[in-house]
Amino acid sequence: MKTVTTADVRISGRRLQERRKRIWQRDPNCARCGRLTIHPHGYELDHRVPLHQGGEDTDENCQVLCNGTEGCHLAKTREDAKA
Ligand SMILES: [Zn+2]
User: How far is the CA of 38 from the centre of ligand 1 (A)?
Assistant: First the structure.
């Protein structure tokens, strides 16, 4: 007998962190500007094809983008919002 606790919720968070690291290890350079990003706080995981445009939530559809106020992730998020 198993009840759902907050610990179960945290597992999905940890899985997301593992996936983030896995994709970063595959290519730690920003997919747009080519800058080397730093794990774990120097990048955001981005969907190449946004989910709302039919993109799949898979490793293959994910890429690393540098973050921060001048970062590519923010720039792409703005472009996606305009599109
Ligand atoms: Zn970048």
Answer: 12
